[in-house]
Design goal:
CATH architecture of the largest domain: Roll
Number of domains: 2
Largest sheet: 9 strands, antiparallel
């Protein structure tokens, strides 16, 4: 095959599924995080593909080791947005031919175990419980393609696998009816979904590391509320999501989704877009008519059959004007 028939249009590589568990000790009070990390690189690496030239390759094993090392030395390791930015900034700063780094983090959910204390229930200083399957999600792109002293970062954060359910105040009616429609309109139903939420921040400038080993990472002294540096944003976004889901008298999943997204944008000035993916978790009332028992009318439906598939999937992105 001649060289004129094809060209390398894009290349990115790195290490995936780097599992990290980190303890930060403050005397007897311990903090923990557990991360699944993906770290990928872009830059002047095309000859490793086109000419079998490995001199431009930072080995994926080295990327894994760097990830562990930054997890050890970073003062920001407990905050996934900051840790991801620290790791990505180090990668683009250390290697002259690497121009972009992409770091994605899943943070597993651990909570402190409540125990009896002197003034009632207290959180245990070093004992934890795995608190469900929900994960906190962070994805960063650190771009040094315009110079190592002109680094720009784009950050997306959010959560996934947040399973919720409400037993009433959800309806679905007025939808298109044609020859394919057998679904009945309902004014009261179970609403359940596994929430995936992502929100993107406005791009931020990252200062060049000042130390010789380019291991330093500085967080701004003044933190703008609602910005990528504001550690309250993930808690607030989760709170808005749960409270809106619980209290909205839902006409549809679409309408509830839109309300949640708009509230997050309204409360966080530096968030530019909010996206949700809400798959239906269907609960179908069991027909007991053959026994003379009413279980289909919404007000009397009490026994349901959970259905895993097929399921509806409702998605949308709401953007700041």
């Amino acid at each position: 095959m001649s060289d004129e028939t094809s060209f390398l249009s894009h290349a990115r590589y790195g290490k995936d599924k780097v599992r990290i568990f980190r303890i930060v000790r403050e005397g007897k009070w311990h903090h923990i995080v557990e991360y699944n990390v993906q770290a990928l690189l872009e830059g002047d690496i095309e000859t490793s593909y086109t000419e079998a030239d490995n001199s431009v390759v930072v080995a994926t094993d080295s990327i894994k080791n760097i990830t562990y090392y930054i997890a050890k030395i970073s003062p920001h390791v407990l905050v996934p947005e900051r840790f991801a930015l620290h790791l990505a900034t180090h990668l683009v700063s250390k290697y002259a031919h690497i121009h972009k780094a992409f770091v994605a983090i899943e943070q597993l959910r651990w909570s402190r175990i409540p125990v009896p204390g002197e003034q009632g229930t207290a959180e245990h200083p070093h004992s934890f419980i795995r608190d469900g399957d929900e994960k906190r999600i962070v994805k960063v792109e650190v771009d040094a393609s315009k110079g190592k002293d002109k680094i720009i970062a784009n950050v997306t954060a959010g959560l996934s696998d947040l399973l919720v359910l409400k037993t009433t105040e959800s309806a679905f009616s007025g939808f298109v009816r044609d020859k394919y429609t057998i679904l009945k309109e309902v004014d009261d139903r179970i609403l359940s979904t596994s929430i995936d939420l992502t929100y993107t921040f406005a791009p931020v400038k990252i200062p060049k590391p000042a130390d010789a080993q380019v291991e330093e990472f500085v967080v701004p002294a003044e933190i703008a509320p609602g910005s990528v540096w504001d550690t309250a944003v993930p808690t607030n976004a989760r709170k808005v999501t749960l409270e809106t889901f619980a209290t909205d008298n839902s006409a549809s999943v679409q309408a509830t989704l839109y309300r949640m997204a708009r509230l997050i944008l309204a409360q966080h000035a530096h968030v530019q877009t909010v996206s949700y993916a809400l798959p239906n978790k269907h609960y179908i009332p069991v027909d007991m008519g053959y026994l003379g028992v009413e279980n289909l009318v919404p007000a009397q439906a009490e026994v349901f059959m959970p259905i895993a598939a097929p399921s509806g999937l409702i998605t949308a992105t709401v953007s700041r004007k």
